Design the sequence.
């Protein structure tokens, strides 16, 4: 017995179990530490904004178009709407057709929209923000907030979303310039 220099089966199983638990913590905690979920959501939203602006300028015809940012059970989605008729006024849901929806990120990310009237909305389940693009120049025409029950313009009158923040471990922000429709993605911290 004194010359036995190996490990017992029990010792080996204990070490493997401890390594499995530690690697599980690393696998779960790594996206939080690197901000991977927030970065992915911000990058996908930036691409969606560019896509919708391009659509507004090239294919929307005689009506403005809009996109909606919302949270559902699967995570954050962007829905693209196109007009049902050649001329559409307002945001009556019966005048618009859902063209496509795209998942942009995990529901674990905190998404906040800031408006030029000083208000902000933390996008939670049942709330959404609609960004309306002007078909003639690609600028943001207005931003519309839905609280899940009724669609209405935030604060009354034409209000614009000026920033969308994505926070989960690290913080990313998309700054929106309503007069041109331009947006800039940057890491805050």
Sequence:
């Amino acid at each position: 017995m004194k010359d036995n220099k190996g490990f017992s089966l029990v010792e080996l199983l204990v070490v493997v179990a401890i390594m499995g638990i530690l690697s599980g913590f690393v696998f779960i905690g790594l996206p939080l530490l690197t901000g991977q979920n927030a970065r992915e959501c911000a990058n996908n939203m930036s691409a969606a904004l560019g896509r919708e602006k391009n659509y507004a300028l090239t294919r929307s015809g005689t009506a403005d178009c809009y996109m909606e940012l919302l949270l559902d059970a699967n995570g954050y989605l962007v829905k693209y709407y196109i007009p049902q008729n050649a001329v559409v006024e307002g945001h009556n849901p019966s005048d618009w057709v859902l063209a496509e929806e795209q998942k942009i990120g995990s529901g674990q990310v905190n998404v906040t929209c800031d408006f030029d009237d000083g208000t902000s909305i933390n996008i939670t389940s049942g709330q959404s923000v609609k960004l309306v693009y002007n078909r003639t120049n690609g600028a943001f025409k207005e931003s519309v907030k839905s609280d899940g029950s009724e669609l209405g313009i935030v604060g009354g009158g034409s209000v614009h979303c000026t920033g969308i923040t994505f926070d989960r471990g690290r913080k990313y922000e998309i700054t929106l310039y309503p007069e041109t429709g331009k947006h800039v993605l940057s890491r805050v911290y």
